[in-house]
Design a protein that fits this description.
118 residues; alpha+beta; Alpha-Beta Plaits; DUF1428; four-stranded antiparallel sheet; globular; DUF1428 domain-containing protein; Dimeric_a/b-barrel
């Protein structure tokens, strides 16, 4: 099977191009270190639910969109190795979290074991 890291985060609409540039850079770096796949997607059909939903999960503001991202690895051990290398990479290690094009305080993420895979 495989292992997946998933992320959900709010991005200001007027910073979406900046976010895309950062995501492309991150994609190249994760893939260089061995990720099997890297995907970033912007919300298109995510209605606000009555109690839970993607917009509610990040306390989405009117001028923001939800981004859903996931990275696929061979295993959790491989994920841990790749992430350690990525976080030490100078292209990302010195990133100022105050200047990134998203609110990291409202982002959430986690690692998942595959349950079903085609």
């Amino acid at each position: 099977m495989s292992y997946v890291d998933g992320f959900v985060l709010p991005v200001p609409r007027d910073r979406l191009d900046d976010y895309r540039k950062l995501a492309r850079k991150a994609c190249r770096i994760w893939m260089e270190y061995g990720a099997l796949a890297y995907h970033e997607a912007v919300a298109d059909d995510v209605p606000v639910g009555k109690s839970t939903s993607f917009p509610r999960s990040v306390k989405l503001k009117d001028d923001e969109v939800v981004v859903f991202a996931y990275i696929v690895y061979k295993s959790r051990a491989q994920r841990d190795k790749v992430n350690k290398q990525v976080m030490a990479d100078p292209r990302l290690a010195g990133m100022d979290m105050k200047s990134v094009p998203f609110d990291g305080k409202r982002m959430f993420w986690g690692g998942f074991k595959s349950l079903v895979k085609a």
